[in-house]
Amino acid sequence: MAFEQRIRSSFAKQGLMSTIGASLTLVQSGVVEIELKPKSAISQQHGFVHAGAVSAIADTAAGYAALTQMPAGRGVLTTEFKINLVAPAVGDVIIARGKVIKAGRTLTLAQSEVFAEKDGQRKLIALLTATLMSIEGRDGISD
Amino acid sequence: MAFEQRIRSSFAKQGLMSTIGASLTLVQSGVVEIELKPKSAISQQHGFVHAGAVSAIADTAAGYAALTQMPAGRGVLTTEFKINLVAPAVGDVIIARGKVIKAGRTLTLAQSEVFAEKDGQRKLIALLTATLMSIEGRDGISD
Amino acid sequence: MAFEQRIRSSFAKQGLMSTIGASLTLVQSGVVEIELKPKSAISQQHGFVHAGAVSAIADTAAGYAALTQMPAGRGVLTTEFKINLVAPAVGDVIIARGKVIKAGRTLTLAQSEVFAEKDGQRKLIALLTATLMSIEGRDGISD
Amino acid sequence: MAFEQRIRSSFAKQGLMSTIGASLTLVQSGVVEIELKPKSAISQQHGFVHAGAVSAIADTAAGYAALTQMPAGRGVLTTEFKINLVAPAVGDVIIARGKVIKAGRTLTLAQSEVFAEKDGQRKLIALLTATLMSIEGRDGISD
């Protein structure tokens, strides 16, 4: 799909995703997954994955899920998100699954569920809802 | 202050803060500031500082502002936050200023304003509100 | 079920639900639905159902969904909610469907989807996530 | 001011504000206050003012604060809000004070503080942040 290539290229430009060690593992129409391996470089003070790192992959998954449904040449910006953190982010891998709830011309609502997987078992650790804005022809933003 | 030392020690244990290059620049009763220098290692796809990095320092500033007002030995966990991103995170430095809005026995509400400073001028780029939970004697959490 | 009777009694004590004309239409373990008929008495300035009325039924549905999973004698209070309003609240009936996402000892995360039904077709108009606190023996709160 | 008359006319069209007994008590550039007298008709099950009624005046105050800074002929819609409820809504009067945080061409961020006043003392009971969208020439929306 054209959008998959577009999103993979865009993800590769996100310095933060590389810095925290996040991988883009699924890109489908309206659904994007990003994974992160827990390690001390992304921890908070108790050794769990930092809420900021969890939020970063959840926001990014929501944003790219929204971008899959925007016309080519459009860019996406997060205008707001809220995240509820319901369990400590510990496990073998942390997976954020973003999906579009309602795509609009200017604003799109997306939601990301974040799971911690341990020994093959997934547990919900966070839920994010985000508003994404479609941007055209502004400051060269196109992804 | 006892709380300042406690918070500086706790901050030093946050791998993510070190990884993204954040500094703890102010610790007062009810108010904490954290700064971050923009660089490509923490960018999103358009070259701005990633919303996840902005959220990480804003959440951390809010959490430590709350911790300044909790009894020694208590730990703090974020249960939820919401952030509105009102302008691109670009500038010489990004500053998150967290302050306590309402301290409670179990839950504390804190807010962080995030500013981008350029040529000595500060501009609001984001506003976060967070609920922090005071934790005692659970899993060895004490900061 | 014991919880159904408990929730129906509690709902009947909510003056606001009666004032805006809301009905409790479904009570199951972890799921509660509340309906509202659009009328000028609950409108905003453009004639749509007011976001405050939409929020009121969505918050109440989320709260009672949480209460279905708390021990008898516990009361429930909303500590925060966020609602995204994705389409105007117009139609034959507005339906808020609250469900529990994660039940905890102190805090429960619940979510409400709000639909507008017109000519038998349902359309999502809002999405709410709420944190509910379980209260025991405080100020006589028991529902 | 032209905007004051515009907002007073718009408020008068809000059926919900009249139904719950809310009054528009202050309209200034970027700041709007709305008051509500506690009574059983707007209660939740414990006798406090319902979070839905608190949210309704807080959202409306935020929305009109935003509208004071939009060009004449523009309408305002709430796209999302989050509210933290930090103390029970009880007292002689509940006051929502909305103010603009950042006015934009399409989206405006506003915040409302909600106070309960008892015996002349004000106490913060809730804090709301809302995103308001400026609408032009759509479905006759002009306030």
Structural features, described:
Four copies of one chain form a homotetramer. With 143 residues, chain A is an alpha+beta fold. Chain A has one domain (2-136): Thiol Ester Dehydrase, Chain A. In chain A, 24% of the residues lie in helices and 42% in strands. The first copy, chain A, is built from three helices and six strands. The first copy, chain A, has helices at 2-12, 15-20, 51-67, and strands spanning 23-28, 31-36, 75-85, 93-102, 107-118, 121-135. Chain A has a six-stranded antiparallel β-sheet. In chain A, a hairpin with a 2-residue loop joins strand 1 and strand 2. The longest helix of chain A is centred in the middle third of the chain and has 17 residues, at 51-67. The first copy, chain A, is globular. The model of chain A has no long low-confidence stretch (mean pLDDT 95). Chains C and D meet through helix 2, helix 3 and strand 3 of C and helix 2, helix 3 and strand 3 of D. Strand 3 of chain A pairs antiparallel with strand 3 (75-85) of chain B, so a sheet runs across the interface.
Question: TL;DR of this structure?
Answer:
Chain A is an alpha+beta fold.
